[in-house]
Specification:
Length: about 325
Amino acid sequence: MREPELFLTRVYKPLDSLDFNGEKLKIDEKEIKFLHHSILNNSEFTKDARGNWKLIFFKDDDLYRQEFYIKFNELDKDEDIAFCQDDSSRILKNTDLNFKKYDEITRLCFVYDGQIQGDSRKDHQINDEFLKYIEHLSLIVRESKAVKFDDFYETRSHYGHFDGRGLSFLAKLPKQRAYLERYILLVALAYAYLGVLEKFGNELAKLGKPEDISRLHFLYEKISYFYVKFFFCQPVLSKNSASVEAWNRISGILKISELKSELDQKVSMIHYILNLQSEKQERKQKEIDKKKQDKVNITFVILGVAISCLQLIGLFK
């Protein structure tokens, strides 16, 4: 019987660029080719001697660039999987990184134990040990027992639960690690998209004055280029059906398309506001110019009248 596989993966954003020595990342000893070429060609994925990853998306432009550190922590069944709140807290404390250097984005916990059969929810044969794994996954990922078995989705190969806090993955079949590593890469890509959209949103929030119109045009150009070059509703090549399904689940839960639509609306509204302000300023300037011109005209009229009067006086002398 295969030994149980237990590991906790923590996804971080470094607060400063990482000094990271590693080799090109491969999954299941194969080149990563399941994403669109334009994403892969502008990304850098490396793996160090301890098996941890450094992922850089959209690396050639600082406005887009998103960097992640993925830390894999192998867990020991006898030492680490004791189903209680205190033990889960110990695991999280022992596997965490310095919060002054890293900001944890999400976490993913994977369990495969050959003693747990690939029971189907339909068969109602879920045993007590299985339910203990579900509980412990919830404790590690969410730090509570909030996620129950009924909250998990089911596929042929695994049970899973994903939300903004992280992924719980209970394999029904062996040799699922490669699938989960692809899932981790997709989760990182999703957060890379969110990071870029958030950065654009923050930049747009700074605008609001008529003189910001040139900055708006610059951001509009950058946003448009990002959409054309890197943003895909489905960044996974269609022939990779399992990863396509995984991306659909991830992007749906993280609401990536909705956030993109919200950003597009902000661009339109700020453009509308700045145009209104520009028009208002133009009208105000026209009124000022008109008043100045009126004063000039009145001055000329007065001078004309004065000259005429002088000419009349000269006639009577």
